[in-house]
């Protein structure tokens, strides 16, 4: 009898451990823009105030460059970085000796880069493992505000998907064992601005969108094997918007935002369900879902925002079926935050904030100039009735999620922040140019 109870106790402990290890997306930050792909965590309760010497659980240096968001799964933090090894290929001229070939005078590197996946212990910040996915010389350069590790990884709690764009797609388990890899070819980004669209996982299928100056495409892979399930060419130029996958109107829709059109693809077949034009160039903000509508926006060479129905088929460009439109103050790089009917976004990359009613498109407050922040590249996040907006100068403004512009705190760190924050439980993760911070009430 005693051995039975001992056995039962071990079984219960084992079950409890397996449940804790399993976790859930709602309790973690498993992808770009969090559990709901809106920037909101329903379970997190991060601090309101912090500084370099207050409420910093840990701060670790990150070698290389990367502006992808860290993702969180249970006791682990994952992030990507690209490290310039300094090893030169003498057959490629030094960048300073290369002729000007684009508007921004971006040159191809002639040094080998290591494309690295890093796993940290969430409690201590200690590095648990790192894997060099590949080493290669990038085939083209990237804008100074971009880098070669700007796509955020994603996980389902078993597989970790890491996309370095033209340097390849890599799948690991959460202990760092490589499961498969794919070379999806080289992108030809206009003006060599660099890549950045993140992969999205849904129901075991991995969605990869590549909009660039070459042949743009959408490709869906089997998450377990990396095999291509289907691929479609896209008539699009540069865009960096991460797609949104949603089950609606009897189909699983993959919604892609780009300058030519916002399109909805059937995840299973690759057929276009509906499409709608109306955004401006260089689309970067990702779509957000609000009930029966998807809200898409852009802010380069003009401003545009639209609430498009998920229930339609065919081309609905300019249709009265579009719920609302706006043509001012929308973001270029950051994605909007949709938080219980309130849509928060900044103008272009400036510290000018607007909040609108997501159901009507009507202004709730703004445009409001946020004097404490410099330009904004990171996307805002929300939790526990609060909104967190991080500027490039290291200042994060904490607002009350309300119909009024109410500042709760202004917090300063000594780094430059282009990556978007991540939230989980009582923690806020902020990736700077040099360090990753874990902010927690201490």
UniProtKB/TrEMBL annotation:
Residues 26-45 are annotated as: Disordered. Residues 116-364 form the Pyrrolo-quinoline quinone repeat domain. The keyword Signal applies. Keywords: Signal. It comes from the Bacteria. InterPro entries: PQQ_b-propeller_rpt, PQQ_rpt_dom, Quinoprotein_ADH-like_sf, WD40/YVTN_repeat-like_dom_sf. This is Outer membrane biogenesis protein BamB. Residues 1-22 form the signal peptide.
